[in-house]
Specification:
Elements: H1 2-10, H2 12-15, H3 18-34, E1 40-42, E2 67-69, H4 72-84, H5 111-128, H6 134-152, H7 161-179, H8 181-186, H9 189-196, H10 210-224, H11 239-257, H12 263-274, H13 279-290
Antiparallel strand pairs: 1-2
Helix pairs in contact: 4-11, 5-6, 5-10, 6-11
């Protein structure tokens, strides 16, 4: 930012261009909004769901979910993404995944399924390769926040709310069936991860099996991070490279969720502000103010009003 200010002050031609002045003001505004230290995000893992599948989750449970301050690296990752995509094409998801063998994990028509699939995979990868790098912090914090939004605030997401709630119900049932009654209600997350690894599939999307898809993706991520001399390893053979990819994936997903001019989403953000505010509401204001839009989901996923997102 300092370098940009210096160049802006030194180059008269830049200052005379309306497009550059407008872009410069946008960057300043973005940074001012993201610099607030009190921003928090709630952290919840779908693998810690213990609520009986036959009962809906009470909305009051969200009040018990732990909130953590948004780290500087998360703000920086989001800022860098927004600035890099200034005036660019509408936001899509899946670009950070350069390996074709992982592209299948974005093929669902439901953004809730995509979120939970990548959340489960990220949790599985973290269990095997814990890290404290900025990329891993970005990935894990945004992963758990997006999982929280799916479970407790589906009204803030692009999908039809009923559709998202149906996805959550299916995940609860799939978890209980794969873990067993005792494990579902009483096992800790590490034990749950070990148990559900038995669901690993063939590296392709399985309809209505989000947990299985997440396990399959998580196993693929683990395989890419094995030491090069391991017979089962695949490039890039480095956990931190995988963490970098995951950080980019979650930044893109977070930005993809934010923009909306849909009346029901706007009402949801208004209600969230009354309850104290959500981080995604800040991003919604940012993306709305800066004109960010999103491409349709793969295979034509749509919003509640029938419009493609």
């Amino acid at each position: 930012m300092v370098a940009l200010v210096c160049d802006y002050a030194a180059r008269t031609a830049w200052r005379e261009k309306p497009s550059f002045r407008w872009g410069f003001r946008r960057i300043r505004w973005l940074r001012s909004r993201m610099s607030h230290g009190e921003l928090t995000i709630k952290q919840f893992s779908v693998l810690n769901l213990r609520w009986p599948p036959v009962f809906p989750l009470p909305s009051t449970l969200s009040l018990l979910v732990r909130a953590r301050t948004v780290p500087a690296c998360v703000k920086d990752s989001i800022m860098d993404y927004l600035v890099a995509h200034d005036h660019a094409a509408p936001i899509s998801i899946g670009k950070p995944v350069v390996d074709q063998d992982l592209k299948w994990a974005f093929k669902s028509k439901s953004i809730a399924e995509v979120i939970l699939t990548w959340h489960i995979a990220t949790t599985i990868f973290e269990d095997k390769f814990p890290s404290h790098t900025s990329s891993s912090i970005v990935a894990t914090r945004l992963s758990k926040y997006c999982s929280y939004l799916v479970i407790f605030h589906p009204e803030l997401l692009p999908d039809n709310q009923d559709k998202t709630e149906d996805v959550v119900d299916l995940v609860k049932k799939e978890l209980k069936e794969s873990l067993g009654c005792l494990e579902f209600f009483f096992f800790r997350q590490a034990a749950r991860v070990e148990r559900i690894m038995k669901l690993e599939g063939e590296g392709s999307w399985t309809e209505k099996k989000v947990v299985k898809n997440g396990v399959t993706l998580g196993a693929s991520l683990r395989a890419k991070a094995k030491p090069p001399n391991d017979p089962g390893s695949k490039p890039p053979n480095d956990p931190e490279i995988v963490w970098k990819m995951l950080g980019d994936v979650w930044t893109e997903i977070m930005i993809y969720l934010a923009p909306s001019t849909d009346e029901e989403r706007m009402k949801g953000h208004e209600n969230a502000l009354v309850e104290g505010g959500e981080f995604i509401t800040v991003l919604w204001a940012l993306t709305t103010h800066t004109g960010v839009s999103r491409k349709p989901m793969p295979d034509g996923g749509q919003g509640e009003d029938g419009r493609s997102y």
